[in-house]
Amino acid sequence: MSAVEQQAGARGSGRALAIAGGIGRFLLIAATTYLGLLAVTFFIGRVIPIDPVLAVLGDRAPESVVERTRREMGLDLPLIEQFWIYIKAALNGDFGTSVLTTNPVMADIRRVFPATIELATVGTLIGTVLGIPLGVLAAVKRGSLADQFVRVVGLVGYSVPIFWLALLALVLFYAKLQWVAFPGRIDIVYQYTFTPVTGFYLLDSALQGQWDVFWDVFRHIVLPGALLGYFSLAYISRMTRSFMLNELSQEYVVAARAKGLSETRIIWGHALRNAAVPMVTVIALSYAGLLEGSVLTETVFSWPGIGLYITDSLQNADMNAVLGGTIVIGSVFIAINLFSDLLYKLLDPRTKVR
Questions:
Q1: What pTM, to 2 d.p., does this model score?
Q2: What is the mean pLDDT of residues 315-332?
Q3: Which of 32, 48, 178, 284 is an S-S bond match for 340, by CB 3.0 to 4.6 Å?
Q4: How far is CA 198 from the centre of its chain?
């Protein structure tokens, strides 16, 4: 074997080891983070002043029944052993039975989570489509009235409580103008005639050609989706402005202007393309934030998603449902966060393995 072939083989082996090491670190971070999430939810479930046995049986159950149920639930075991059982059950998707619905918690989550995903997706699309152009405009017109307007819009999005803005939106667009439908996900006229397949009502109704159902679902989702989209817009526009200001100050922009390239090509063809790499992470985190932070929005708009499910369960001391929903949302947030980090490394040539 020649020296050149040996060097090529060594480089290939080194690259394979580097990739394997990166995958190993990625999996270790994911496992450690998920274990931390399980630990937090487990100990929260043990320190809150709600007895899970009494939540199931009621406070008038005989003491013998209470003790037997406590043993059956494993609550008489040492804490570390309870934690190990909790980990194994969570890894198998077993979060117990909901006291409120009497269904397995995971079955309830599979039923309600698509509604939250659909709502968060609409909000993220609105925030991305409007937030990126506004952020670019603010960066290009730095210090102008347009820049001040975009910054004020973002500031209001961060400062105003979402439940207050949601109530105002309901009063204006539903009660006064009647532009949107009553809170909920679908009108009662279609609730028992429409059969969803994927759980995403907009997609299912379009695929089935039921356009009357599609527009009814659209009229229900447009207001809460726009509200979440506004908060997503506030974050995305601010970050886009920051990234674009950084790119517009780079030497390649000065060189492009010296060559006579148009401002449109410099801004949209060069600066925004380079800023798009970190924006992937921003959009992913915004999407994850809407998935986990839509509790108040779902409550105000009676949106039957996981946020409303957790709220109702908490009000009824249904801790299996509360902790199960928290773990699912936390797991999705971790997965999206790690995926965006991995995607960033793949898209950014400066972070690729050499």
A1: 0.82
A2: 84
A3: 284
A4: 19
Can you give the pLDDT at residue 59?
A: 67
Whether residue 98 is contained in a domain is answered as: no
> What is the number of structural domains in the chain?
2
Residue 112 to residues 166, 201, 313, Cα–Cα distance (Å)? 21, 12, 13
Residue ranges making up the domain that contains 308: 105-351
Q: How confident is the model at residue 353 (pLDDT cuts 50, 70, 90)?
A: very low
HSE, side-chain direction, 13 A CA sphere, residue 71: 5
Which residue among 40, 58, 91 closes a domain? Answer: 91
The Cα–Cα gap between 132 and 241 comes to 8
Give the C-alpha separation, 38 to 326, whole Å: 10
Whether 185 and 303 have beta carbons less than 8 Å apart is answered as yes
Q: At 329, list the tokens.
A: 């949302």
| 147, 234: one domain | yes
3-state helix, strand, coil in the chain (%, to 5): 80, 0, 20
163, part of any domain = yes
Greater model confidence, 61 or 68: 68
Residue 236 falls within a domain, yes or no?
yes
Q: Output the six-digit token pair for 118.
A: 């659909």
